[in-house]
Amino acid sequence: MLRTIQPCPEHHYYFVTGKLAEPMVRETVDRLAKQFGFAYSIGVMPITVAALITPKWLIRHLNPPSIATHVVVSGHLDTGHNELDSQVQIPVIYGPNDCREMAAVFGETRSIDPPTDYDIQIIAEINHAPRQDLQSVVSRAAQLVSCGANVIDFGCDPSNRCLQIGDYIAALVDQGISVSVDTFDSWEAAEATRHGASLVLSVNSSNRDQAVDWGVEVVAIPDTPCDKKSFEKTIDFLSKHGVTTRLDPILEPIGTGFANSLLRYTETRRDYPEHEMMMGIGNLTELTEVDSAGVNFLLLGICQELGIRSVLTTEVINWARSSVRECDAARRLVHYSVKKRVPPKHLSHDLVMLRDARLHPYTKQAIESLATSIRDNNYRILAENDSLYLLAANVLISGSDPFEMFQELLDRPESDNVDAGHAFYLGYEMAKASLALQLAKQYNQDQSLDWGLLTEPENRHRIRRK
């Protein structure tokens, strides 16, 4: 595990690497030495690829200078640290696997455990649930719970009463799932609560009289979003009859009163500080044609600061299809941020999905030096500084069009090892590299691009020689 250290002028760090990475290590360490003010030397081991170094092998070849106060080795060796620590006479520091991330050793980036605490409840709605069969609803509910939902909202069909609503609710409750029901139909609400639903969305002047008999918590809303008086009358009525209530002034989409609706949430919190509140954030994410992660995060931040401790979301539209997972990540970040009174930065990269938090580019000189160091015909692909690079022994091809680069490779005598398998592999990797350039993402060969919480680990598919 990478641990940071505090560099000082009295320290002399001995960086261990292989032949292939020597140019990049020298360039990176030279910059860091100037930045942090430490002395250093570099030990180039008699091996091409540093990642192949083992603790036993390194002990036989390690010969740090007498002035060295610390040895810095690759994080690949962390699994054998006990053996190294016992044999090396000075402290051993286990850095990152990629030398370009070496700054993390000296605390350039903060290392904080991802926030885990939260106090905002996610209510995930299954829209038009009665149009699906019972098993589909149960399966979908289980999936939403696994993504972070605390309550599953059974969204009724306003045009058709669901006569089997009791069966649906009972099936969900039997799975240990907390259930709310989204309906203005008093009969549906009564049946749902009788079979285990613990929350009814929503109540206004049209059904508040019946809400007294349901015996569960309800969400109070105004008759129309701007009708504050009807909202107040419903709240007073429910309070008078002892009905536990959450307040939702209604979030309106951009273009129909979004800013004013945010003001209503602030005013409602001021006027009713003792009440729980809910915000239906799906009204914005579903009706705003942008990726939902940033929208969800901002809305969760507003909720955290106003003490709104439940949100209603849904995943109907494709650009919001991961909203529950996004809200789950966002609520942890905003809880930490508000509690610690710090900006929500350097806490987690789960919601940095389109672009990466930072890039670690090679300079053109480092790439050229790397190219001259390669002695084998295995292809390396880089995506740096608006260009793609394809490197192997006696090969350095750069450009922006993978098709043109591949044709250039085939026209060279060195391409006699490019069979169908190689071609497929290179095409796959260069497509990833092109996408990384387009979106300003970090590309690392044989590794998946970083899509935040949507990242799927990628098996290493590099062609292996028999």
UniProtKB/TrEMBL annotation:
<dbReference type="InterPro" id="IPR011005">
    <property type="entry name" value="Dihydropteroate_synth-like_sf"/>
</dbReference>
<dbReference type="InterPro" id="IPR045031">
    <property type="entry name" value="DHP_synth-like"/>
</dbReference>
<dbReference type="InterPro" id="IPR045406">
    <property type="entry name" value="DUF6513"/>
</dbReference>
<dbReference type="GO" id="GO:0004156">
    <property type="term" value="F:dihydropteroate synthase activity"/>
</dbReference>
<dbReference type="InterPro" id="IPR000489">
    <property type="entry name" value="Pterin-binding_dom"/>
</dbReference>
<protein>
    <recommendedName>
        <fullName>Pterin-binding domain-containing protein</fullName>
    </recommendedName>
</protein>
<feature type="domain" description="Pterin-binding">
    <location>
        <begin position="103"/>
        <end position="368"/>
    </location>
</feature>
<dbReference type="GO" id="GO:0046654">
    <property type="term" value="P:tetrahydrofolate biosynthetic process"/>
</dbReference>
<dbReference type="Pfam" id="PF20123">
    <property type="entry name" value="DUF6513"/>
</dbReference>
<dbReference type="GO" id="GO:0005829">
    <property type="term" value="C:cytosol"/>
</dbReference>
